[in-house]
């Protein structure tokens, strides 16, 4: 990825495959948009009058040059209202169009944009231009995308940060989109080790089956026992030289079921190929950890990613089995397709043992959260009001939106078992995301913790979105500030 900042220049004379002209619905014909309208004989004004250009962020109209500008095409894109991620969304729309056109050089006419807006639209262009062609027989275009932010108020450091975020999101998407025969738990652990080798201060390890047995991680091992692929508990640690808050150990936990058939409680076949993305939470946690370390944030960080497949076989766990989790709690298996909470249980308990002071987990945990709130917000659950609000606010700043959901002791009966300490599912068809979170709460002790159910936001249109990377970075940046 390459992003450059050019402080001066005429956008109409910019050499580009695509000229991107952001405009605000409040003042649509000002600055570069006005200049473009003049050059194209009033075409922008007509598009606005005909309501071809909407007011929501990312609404866009493609226009062809009639000799009034150097670029063959211009994309007028709305930045919408003054929302935290409006410019990023405008950039995503521009990036998607640039990718579809095969554009190699994109110039963003950002006169009047603040430093944050310039960085956001540049980041958005990279996010929108993402394309995964690793498994296509036809080679991808050799033209590397270059984004030039023209006349923006940004800084080189700001654009470099935006590029780093976009690269981390792309990594999370690559991991989520990888077929399960190309990304087993073992290979995911190798990815984490390779990333740690490249980044100062970051260390990685992976606990295999024998170590997990000695630890007593019976929940993760139970889910894995139906597969020929052995599980891994991936652990990343980032220790900066001078952390702002030495007593704090921020902890990310991400579910990584590299393929989920549902086990004995097997899923319907329709759409099952998308279950390679049931590790999207773990992918976001790993990518965000690398991002925090690359940016050198002065915050201590622990990341724990339980990785396994969930397969049906003669050795798979069965409904009615009772297993013992890492913290000693026994769990009756009601539904083997409620496996994510099992592997997270061991990961959360392990993180507590390692001294986590604040935790957030991400998991494509329940289909019910998609029914409840769709694909705009992830479900946010927490055991500490202050920490929950901190996570919610980080979502607002980053554009990874999360919506607070209820937790209450009166839901606890849904995770009670007659034969064990807990049940991993309930036969009552109610409050599925809530009782899943209630189950997880049993493994965090008194540590401030939040659970993000990202089933609706981490997978979209058959592909991984990278949701959560920006939110986790925003959390780390907040803890990097003095208390």
SSE layout and pairings?
Layout: E1 2-6, E2 18-23, H1 31-39, H2 43-49, E3 60-64, E4 73-78, H3 86-101, E5 105-109, H4 115-128, E6 146-150, H5 156-177, H6 185-198, E7 202-207, H7 209-215, H8 218-224, E8 232-238, E9 250-254, E10 256-260, H9 280-294, E11 301-310, E12 322-324, E13 330-332, H10 340-353, E14 358-363, H11 367-373, E15 378-382, H12 385-398, E16 402-404, E17 422-423, H13 432-441, E18 449-453, E19 459-460, E20 463-464, H14 469-479
Parallel strand pairs: 1-6, 2-4, 2-5, 5-6, 9-11, 9-14, 10-11, 13-17, 14-18, 15-16
Antiparallel strand pairs: 3-4, 7-8, 8-11, 12-13, 15-18, 19-20
Helix pairs in contact: 3-4, 4-5, 5-9, 8-10, 9-14, 10-13, 12-14
Short description:
By secondary structure, the chain is of the alpha/beta class. It is built from 14 helices and 20 strands.
How would you portray this structure in words?
With 483 residues, the chain is α/β, with parallel strands linked by helices. The chain has two domains: 2-151, Leucine Aminopeptidase, subunit E, domain 1 (3-Layer(aba) Sandwich), CATH 3.40.220; 166-479, Aminopeptidase (3-Layer(aba) Sandwich). Helix content is 35%, strand content 20%. The protein has 14 helices and 20 strands. The protein has helices spanning 31-39, 43-49, 86-101, 115-128, 156-177, 185-198, 209-215, 218-224, 280-294, 340-353, 367-373, 385-398, 432-441, 469-479, and strands at 2-6, 18-23, 60-64, 73-78, 105-109, 146-150, 202-207, 232-238, 250-254, 256-260, 301-310, 322-324, 330-332, 358-363, 378-382, 402-404, 422-423, 449-453, 459-460, 463-464. A hairpin with a 5-residue loop joins strand 12 (322-324) and strand 13. The radius of gyration is 24 Å and the shape is elongated. The mean pLDDT is 94.
């Amino acid at each position: 990825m390459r992003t450059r900042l050019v402080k001066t220049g005429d956008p109409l004379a910019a050499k580009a495959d695509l000229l991107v002209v952001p405009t605000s619905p409040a003042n649509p014909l000002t600055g570069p948009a006005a200049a473009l309208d003049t050059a194209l004989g009033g075409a922008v004004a007509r598009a606005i009058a005909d309501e071809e250009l909407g007011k929501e962020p990312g609404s866009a109209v493609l226009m062809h040059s009639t000799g009034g500008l150097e670029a063959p095409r211009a994309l007028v894109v709305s930045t919408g209202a003054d929302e935290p991620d409006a410019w990023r969304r405008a950039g995503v729309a521009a990036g998607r169009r640039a990718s579809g056109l095969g554009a190699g050089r994109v110039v963003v006419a950002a006169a009047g944009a603040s430093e944050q807006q310039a960085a956001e639209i540049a980041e958005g262009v990279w996010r929108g231009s993402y394309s995964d062609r690793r498994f296509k027989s036809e080679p991808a275009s050799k033209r590397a995308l270059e984004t030039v932010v023209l006349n923006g108020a940004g800084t080189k450091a700001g654009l470099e940060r935006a590029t780093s975020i976009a690269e981390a999101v792309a990594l999370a998407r690559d991991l989520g989109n990888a077929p399960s025969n190309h990304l087993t738990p073992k290979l995911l652990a190798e990815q984490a080790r390779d990333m740690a080798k490249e980044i100062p201060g970051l260390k990685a390890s992976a606990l295999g089956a024998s170590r997990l047995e000695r630890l007593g991680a019976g929940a993760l091992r139970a889910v894995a026992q139906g597969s020929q692929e052995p599980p891994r508990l991936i652990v990343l640690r980032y220790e900066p030289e001078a952390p702002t808050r030495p007593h704090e150990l921020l902890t990310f936990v991400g579910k990584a079921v590299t393929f989920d058939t549902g086990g004995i409680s097997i899923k319907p076949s329709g759409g099952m190929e998308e279950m390679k993305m049931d590790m999207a939470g773990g992918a976001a946690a790993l990518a965000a950890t690398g991002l925090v370390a690359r940016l050198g944030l002065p915050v201590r960080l622990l990341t724990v990613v339980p990785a396994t497949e969930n397969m049906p076989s003669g050795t798979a766990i069965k409904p009615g089995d009772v297993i013992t989790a890492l913290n000693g709690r026994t769990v009756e298996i009601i539904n083997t397709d409620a496996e994510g909470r099992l592997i997270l249980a061991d990961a959360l308990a392990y993180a507590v043992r390692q001294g986590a002071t604040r935790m957030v987990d991400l998991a494509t945990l329940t289909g019910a959260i998609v029914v409840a709130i769709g694909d705009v917000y992830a479900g946010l659950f927490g055991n500490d009001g202050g920490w929950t609000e901190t996570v919610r606010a980080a979502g607002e700043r980053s554009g990874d939106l999360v919506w607070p959901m209820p937790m209450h002791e009166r839901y606890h009966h849904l995770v009670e078992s007659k034969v064990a300490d807990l049940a991993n599912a309930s036969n009552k068809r109610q409050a599925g995301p809530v009782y899943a979170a209630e189950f997880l709460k049993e493994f965090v002790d008194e540590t401030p913790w939040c659970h993000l159910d990202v089933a609706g936001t981490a997978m979209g249109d058959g592909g991984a979105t990278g949701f959560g990377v920006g939110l986790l970075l925003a959390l780390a940046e907040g803890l990097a500030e003095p208390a």
